[in-house]
Amino acid sequence: MVKHTVESCSKAKMAIRDTLDVVGGKWKLVLISVLRSGKKGFNELSREAGISPRILSKELQELEMNGLVSRKVCDTKPVTVQYELTPYSGTLSEVLSAMEKWGYQHRNKIVQGVE
Amino acid sequence: MVKHTVESCSKAKMAIRDTLDVVGGKWKLVLISVLRSGKKGFNELSREAGISPRILSKELQELEMNGLVSRKVCDTKPVTVQYELTPYSGTLSEVLSAMEKWGYQHRNKIVQGVE
């Protein structure tokens, strides 16, 4: 058990905020989890994650800027674009698996509460 | 290493989305991390987390609705209200500590990249 002092708490608060600045919001972690199954085209991503193209484009730009997703223009006719996770995005696996676990247990708790 | 199949990925995606529905957004996890140091009044929370009262009130209501924060009206003059974490909020500790760790390492990475 870590002791909660004012100083350690404000450091922790800042670190959590840093993380939320990069992967917070409604979509970024969902996009990362969708891309874990392999690279995808823009429309495919939009469909699988259920995000409108306008928002998806903005989210992907931000993920790219933070080195989590890479964008590859393929020399096809017409030109196609593919998005894939960078190796650096692997550093988020602990965050993702903790959220995944919590999501499961929270859903179970609610389902049990309703029965 | 967990194998990523279509089925396990869509389950994982749903669980992550469930978690984001409850604690996603800009403020909820920050509020929870602020409340980890003990119960707080409304103005204190607003100041410490740097959230406007209007948004804070909405966020606290949602956290209360999901059983993560409890609101206690104290019989003082004038009446004061205190917010504190519920025991259930403790189930989020793994999510919080993973985000804290990631925030630290990401900040270090950026600082090193700039130097």
From TrEMBL, chains A, B:
Domain annotation HTH hxlR-type: ranges: 9-111
Highest taxon listed in the record's lineage: Bacteria
Entries under InterPro entries matching the protein: HTH_HxlR, WH-like_DNA-bd_sf, WH_DNA-bd_sf
Ribonucleoprotein listed as a keyword: no
Coiled-coil intervals: none
Keywords for this protein: DNA-binding, Transcription, Transcription regulation
GO molecular function: DNA binding
Name this polypeptide is given: Transcriptional regulator, HxlR family
Origin organism lineage: Bacteria, Pseudomonadati, Bacteroidota, Sphingobacteriia, Sphingobacteriales
